[in-house]
Amino acid sequence: MRKWLKDRQYLKASVYVFIVAAALIIFEKVIGNMGSVADAFKRFLSFSVGIMAPFLYGFFIAYLFNPLVKQFDRLFKLIPRFNGNRFSRTASILLTFGVIGISITLAVRYISPEIISSFKKLRDTAEYYLDIISGRGVKITNE
């Protein structure tokens, strides 16, 4: 019985030595080929990000609009016809999409012309400001 326990300890120690030696060999191979390993990792990472991007955008949008959906859901549940009905959640989501769509439309309609006119003014006066910065422009002095 003692010989068997001793043999088992040797077997266990030799398995540990084998695992450590294999890990060291794999580590040396990875370090030796670090350039190709890094390129493969970059390709994998860019591929993964390309696949996961729509899901991440969706999670972000859902996280951002969830409080508005909850608020509309509470308002719909105050109406006796919608109380306890699954339609209230669907109506809340559709109403949220409508509010966000109208908000974006109004922002584009009324804010973008102001931004465009500001860029036109900047384009028209950019040469004057560049001349002032470079020292070729009009200098104001108190003489």
Tags for this model:
143 residues; mainly alpha; 0% strand
What would you note in describing this structure?
The chain has a domain at 59-134. Helix 2 (34-78) crosses helix 3. It is built from three helices and no strands. The longest helix is centred in the last third of the chain and has 48 residues, at 87-134. The protein starts with a helix and ends in a 9-residue tail after the last helix. The chain has helices at residues 2-32, 34-78, 87-134. The radius of gyration is 34 Å and the shape is flat. The protein is mainly alpha-helical.
Provide the fold topology.
Elements: H1 2-32, H2 34-78, H3 87-134
The major beta sheet can be summarized as: none
Number of strands: 0
**Spans where pLDDT lies below 50 across 5 or more residues:** none
What string, H for helix and E for strand, traces the elements in order?
Answer: HHH
The number of helical segments is 3
Shape: flat
Q: How large is the share of residues in beta strands?
A: under 5%
Mean pLDDT across all amino acids:
85
Question: What structural class do helix, strand and pairing data support?
Answer: mainly alpha
Q: What is the quaternary state of this protein?
A: single chain
Round the Cα radius of gyration to an integer and report it: 34 Å
Helix proportion of residues, in percent?
over 70%
